[in-house]
Write a structure and sequence with these properties.
Alpha-Beta Plaits, five-stranded mixed β-sheet, 22% helix, six-stranded mixed β-sheet, 263 residues, globular
């Protein structure tokens, strides 16, 4: 007996983390700052899922095409673009994304590759589709009892007990990242909370990846290529020479990234 091949194709809804670029006006000045970062870390955007959100710019369609071309010439490959009219979708633009939001997952989800978190996201997406098809846009408010019983989610830090090598990316949007060892040049550590490196930080560290401005970066020895807190960046060339090689903390003071010695 022969078995006929299935003619069905399976489609599933999933949520994946992506880094979001948010250009600001004046756009020419933002492009200049982008070029400065790329001059210091030319491979920063390689092999990453990148979305550009242009909601703050209010671009015309022609200007959007020009921006996409400028990013393309800088070898920034985009997963999608958000903040524009969905009717602008065409072959010349990346897919237009809507409804993006921060995805929360528990530590056990991280340990299993996020499988259970994705399943919950899939179910939530299907529920939203079902509500839209029914024409329901009303969400019932929680009762007073439910609100009183609700507790904020608490996430344990992600602990990396081995060196982070060149080309590796550690991404943990749920909270702090602790690296017991060095972070090599060409490696990325991205955290929703603070970053602690008990070794030499030679790569790139981005704390407060979702806009948490109270996040900080701590390292035993600073030799970083790039630092960021709450979305504000500091390149290697902008770091004070006397802070390199020191045991330091890094934090955000309004729109400035500050560095201070700890010993």
């Amino acid at each position: 007996m022969t078995q006929t091949a299935s003619r069905h194709i399976r489609f599933r809804s999933r949520s994946f983390p992506a880094l979001v670029l948010e250009p600001e006006r004046p756009l020419a000045g933002w492009i200049d700052r982008l070029d400065a970062y790329l001059a210091c870390t030319p491979a920063f955007f390689s092999r990453k899922a990148i979305v550009v959100d242009v909601a703050r710019l209010g671009l015309e369609r022609a200007s959007l095409h020009d921006l996409m071309q400028q990013l393309k010439t800088r070898r920034i490959r985009l997963l999608g673009v958000s903040g524009v009219d969905p009717s602008w979708a065409c072959d010349e633009l990346p897919p237009i994304l809507t409804g993006g939001r921060v995805v929360e997952a528990h530590n056990d989800d991280m340990a299993t590759g996020g499988r259970s978190a994705l399943t919950r996201e899939e179910l939530a997406a299907f529920d939203e589709i079902a509500d839209a098809l029914k024409g329901s846009n009303v969400t019932a408010a929680p009762s007073a009892t439910e609100a009183a019983q609700a507790e904020p989610a608490v996430f344990s830090p992600l602990v990396i007990e081995s060196p982070v090598r060149s080309g590796q990316t550690i991404f943990y949007p749920q909270g702090d990242v602790i690296v017991i060892g060095p972070v090599s040049s060409g490696a990325d550590v991205i955290a929703g909370g603070s970053i602690h490196v008990y070794g030499t930080l030679r790569g790139r560290a981005m704390a407060g990846a979702y806009g948490e401005t109270r996040a900080r970066i701590f390292c035993r020895r600073l030799e970083a290529e790039l630092l960021a807190v709450g979305g504000v960046y500091l390149t290697a060339d902008e770091m004070e020479a006397e802070m390199r090689g020191q045991h330091v903390q890094i934090w955000l003071d309004r729109d400035d990234v500050k560095i201070a010695r700890l010993d």
